[in-house]
Records
---
Amino acid sequence: MPTSATTGSTIIPGLRYRNAHAAIDWLCKAFGFERHAVYENDQGSVEHAQLSYGSGMIMLGDVRDNEFGRRMAQPEEIGGRETQCPYVVVANCKSHYLQAKEAGAVIVDDYAEKDYGGAGYSCRDPEGHLWSFGSYDPWHAS
């Protein structure tokens, strides 16, 4: 069985955006993701994209009215709430926080040192998805 040490993360969050192209640009600028792959349909919509961060990855695409798409709700459709929140381990949480804030991330939990170790913060991206970033790495915690 592959492990994250040899293949990257084995759990990859998936998100949908109303404007996936703009979301990709913003996620790369604000959070430091890198484009791994972006696949468009004939109309230029993002069918599937993969963004990497270290050995982790997220997948995303444009909101679509299909069987899978109808299983997902956008934050503004449900009062800004989420049913999941990606947590991303970052090396320098304070500088990551400042970069995200400068790019216009809506900070919902300000940067703070945590009692259990490391530091962290939470924010929303331009389409309202909730993200959590921190220097606490559960793979290397004692």
---
Amino acid sequence: MSSKTLVIDLSHHNPTPDWVALKAGGILGVIMKASEGETYVDPTYAQRKKQALAAGLATASYHFFHGNSDAEMAHYLAAAQPVQGERVVIDHEAGANLDQLVQAVEYLRRTRPDLQVTIYSGHLIKEQLGSTKNEYLAINTSLWIAHYTGEAQPSWPQGTWPAWSLWQFTDHASVAGSSAPVDGNRWNGTEDNLLRWLGPAPQQPAPEPPPQPEPLTVFVTIQKPKGVEVKVMVEEAEE
């Protein structure tokens, strides 16, 4: 487990960071709110995603879930427009029951089986699962646990997820590039695995084509005697 803040999460409540400074300061990924309920779209999401990717940061999105499974997930996919292999997150803290959460995951898996699905939650998922195992969530999702504690590890529903993937350990992380504290998240693994977990690598700009050499010009002077006809044949040399 990394003890560093490697991932931050943002919504419209957070000021837009300096993306290049974030990357230079050691942040590897940003998870941004895309939508909530059946109609709300975070107005900062689309532009911030472009800016983060342009700075070389990995990105993912989340949806604040209220419980209307199919309608909300359809809205989420339309708002987030995730590419193949991207990670999508259901933010489960508004009081939806466990059946509604499972139905939401089922919708995502059925509609976009190419996506990676994560559950974000804290006290609510602990209360709903306890020490029991939900087979469907165990197979089809990973866990992003919210638990603000000074302990070396959070507590989480280990019956369903033997290990957490991401841990939101504070809402007051100070990171380069942000003018205000942000949610800080630790990753349970290597940095390379974190980038794979988040999804497709940021698209790097295509390299500039190498400069083409100037065409070589050869000048030939021929002194032609009077009364002599001169014919010149030019052949292209093999490269």
